[in-house]
Amino acid sequence: MFKIIAILSAVIVAIHAHEEHHAPAHYKFDYGVHDPHTHDVKSQWEHRDGDHVKGAYTLKEADGTTRLVEYTAGPHSGFNAVVKRIGHAHHPAHYGHHGAAHHGGHGGDSFVGVTHWGFKQ
Question: Which candidate, 26, 76, 75, 18, places its Cα nearest to that of 50?
Fold first, then answer.
């Protein structure tokens, strides 16, 4: 008899543990980064009230402009985003004489590093 009660208790606990409680989600967060060394400047905020989300983020682009993305999401409207560009693009100044970079003059090199990961099969 004790074994049957123990087994039934374990089953009831297991069933209760698998019940999901669905409460509406509510949260607010925001953060920002301003790193003068790397020039990484960005921020984000978001609010959620149940099924409705509203937020925005900013990102400082390499050309000096700021990208602003404002978004909303909901069960009936889906995800909607509006992207804006703030400011005027600035291009880097060229130093040295015309063509000097090709003849050992002033100038810099740029490259994009690509890492390849090999996996044995």
Answer: 26
